[in-house]
Amino acid sequence: MKAKSRKNLARIPFYIIMFTFILFVVGIFATVVIGCFSNDWSKTFLPKSFSTFYLKQAWTNYGIAKYYLVSVEIVVVATSLSLICVIPTAYVMARKEMKIKSLLHQFFQLPILLPELLIGIPLATIFYSIGIAESYGVVVAILIVIGIPFGLSILIPFIEALDERVEIAAETLGANKFKVFTKIIIPQLIPGVVSTLINVFVRLFTNYTLVLLVGGPKTFTLTIKVFNVLSNAKTEPQALLNSLTLYYMLPMLIFTFLTLVLEKMLKKRFGGK
């Protein structure tokens, strides 16, 4: 009994830390959500009255629809191209033994480990010097520089965890490499690909530094707009800023929730754990 009591006591700091963290995160989100619907919230625990006035004003004043469209266009293309490159590359790096395998792993980790400025500034210098900066193609290209390594860091361990004996058995029965990859590997990879898609999309959608370095007025994403407004918002009503923040948070929360549900369904469908 004493040992059990000590074990329970040892868990108390963990529970306190977890509860504090959850309360902190929920508190921040609740403050933003309640704040964007409030008309006057200064000296009371809850706002005195609620309305959607500031939500409508933020949507109109800041051109949210335009920045949503630009962000989705750029990030969807960058994420799709990243995945097209990630899937075969991750398979080769997970399954094939090469002398430079560890070197390749370290190389692909550099864009994740290094500060984005160290990557972005040289690329921005090149793009501006040849006159192709501030275009959709360049913004997509520089996001892919982050998207591919980030996707590989997620998908390679997933492939390494798959049972290689299934592939060997398929080859023994006469299946070629292409059939093994499309009929055996891809179905097993779907949960991992969905997980990679979630993380890469959110990472690229929230990227600020690289888009700021090579983007222009026509290619600035919602992240850039939100930062610019919040950094020069001394005279703006707090409810208006909360509304802008909510518009920025909602797509990521909805997308993450839907894709997590989809990932769970796919794992059940394809026998994932």
TrEMBL record:
Q: Name one GO biological process term.
A: transmembrane transport
| Membrane spanning residue stretches | 12-34, 67-91, 112-130, 136-159, 180-202, 246-266
Q: Which SUPFAM superfamilies match?
A: MetI-like
Localization annotation = Cell inner membrane; Cell membrane
Which keywords appear in this protein's UniProt record, sorted alphabetically? Cell inner membrane, Cell membrane, Membrane, Transmembrane, Transmembrane helix, Transport
Pfam families in alphabetical order: BPD_transp_1
Positions of the ABC transmembrane type-1 domain: 68-259
Q: Which InterPro entries match?
A: MetI-like (IPR000515), MetI-like_sf (IPR035906)
Q: Which GO terms describe its cellular component?
A: plasma membrane
Gene3D superfamilies attached here? Answer: MetI-like (1.10.3720.10)
User: Topology with regard to the membrane?
Assistant: Multi-pass membrane protein
Broad class of where this protein is predominantly found: membrane
Q: Which PANTHER family match?
A: INNER MEMBRANE ABC TRANSPORTER PERMEASE PROTEIN YDCV
Which family would the database say this protein is a member of?
Belongs to the binding-protein-dependent transport system permease family.
Report the protein name in the record.
ABC transmembrane type-1 domain-containing protein
Species:
Lachnoclostridium phytofermentans
Its taxonomic placement starts with:
Bacteria, Bacillati, Bacillota, Clostridia, Lachnospirales
